[in-house]
Amino acid sequence: MYYGRATDKLVQEQGECGGVITAVLIAAVEQKLVDGALVIKRGESIYDGAPYFATTKEEITEAAGSLHCAPTLSAKLIKNDFNGARDLRIAVTCKPCDARAIIELSKRNQIDLDNVYMIGVNCGGTMLPGPAREMIRQFFDIDPEDVVKEEIDKGKLIIITKDGQHKELSIDDLEAEGYGRRTNCQRCEYNIPRMADLACGNWGVIGDDAGKVTFVEVRTEKGQKLLDTAIAARAITLKDAPPQGIALREKLDGIMVKMARKAMATQFAQFDGDHKFERLFAQFDKCDGCRECIDVCPICSCVECFTKQEFVVPKDTVPPDPMFHLTRLMHVSPSCVNCGQCENVCPKKIPLATITHMVQSSVQGTLGYVPGQSTADAIPLSKIAEVKA
Amino acid sequence: MSQAEDATEMDERQWEPSILTFCCNWCSYAGADGAGTARMQYPPNARVIRVMCTGRINPLFIVKGFLAGADMVMVLGCHFGDCHYLKGNYTCDMRMSYLKAYLQAIGINPERLYWDQISASEGIKFAETMRNVVAKAKALGPIANEIGAYVHGTRQNRSILGMSAFDACANGEGENGSTTQEIAEDIW
Asked: Taking burial as the number of CB atoms within 10 A of a residue's CB, which of A16, A311, A356, B54 is the most buried?
């Protein structure tokens, strides 16, 4: 585990905390370790971020820095638009849910993991652009378009406006009012991307270094290769992380996990109790059957969807037959990575991710499977236990 | 009046549980045959579907069974090691344990799913299991208590009319010669 810093002055400035990720990506592309880097590039404002396949130093530098109001998911993109990384090597910046989704897809032979270099970034949660704008207008009392930078740090949402004003509010308070992070992020127990090749972030950086260096943890051989390439190209400098820093990072992670468990309990409670089936379907019956949730889901990768068969879900009824949702739940929930995409794209605002996560939390004990952790554990129900007591 | 109200108002003596039963072709189905040829008495509540192997049963068949009004679903297969296809019943066992957890999660009592192993020679066990399961189903009550109006898909479709109007929109004109815009206004 290291503290790292980019050597290039421009990269240092553009990057978030020392610019290690940007520098590593540039080195990997320039040394031909990868063909390109899949990054999130800022668009018109801080609420606008889109995935971008960068192949030059300039393009990568342009995409440096974090965006908390652009909850994209790169896993399905790699599968659909890059042919599962079968013909080209990609370095990709990942939130923990991106990394987990990529691992799940690789287990389903949809992504060639050998060609994907995952650079994970700590993530305490992301916000939807629309509600974020509204929140900034309402709670900070400024025009959301004046905000030039946002940051989530130590449980606070910090924004910086055009005229240099700093403002901050506690995320807990915002979430109590129904704003703040996406609900799936509130429930997320994976804040450090330990399943990626490199786990980077600003947690655990103490003393004078705070804000100037990036905490880097090497998780796999591929991660080591990325770092070695960057060091050989003199793009970054590393020093060992102090033990207090490592302990602090663990502590922060522990606090976030505890908060996530609390959020789970409160969010799942709305469906508990008698008539659970009818409570669930009070939500599902809002459905128009647009199938957008299936399109974005990183777990749904069947060529022929079971729900497209007439005997399972009769065509042209609104809302769709209950079997549509029950099939989706049954297929997705054991492997759901809680990325929240289904809920975000739903035009009827059905809390799909919440329900899927709730089902997952109750079947997990039986299956003994935690999705997206390593390629070594088999997909649930895919391996037959031959010996039965 | 919804199905749920119907079912609860019905006299308990009148209501008979219907039990969807999946039987493996090679063992339990022959076991049921055995019970029949030996003229054993057992309640007639089971609706038997013969499958070539319990490993063929998609858990969603069972979920769909509940939605179609089965009060209990029974899956009967071979004993471990006896499967005609070597591993089919292991697959089934794995799926059934997942399905029980899943049913619990969506608010259907997992007790409503019964999975057991009956060989071709166990006619007695078949009759006995049938009696036990019917008693259990009676204790659990109608499925409508748990899934309400969703049994048999009796629930109202929200906008079937809207959908046909949409089709009309696609053709450029609606019923009675109304324009696309008028139809759209009607829908919303």
From this structure: B54
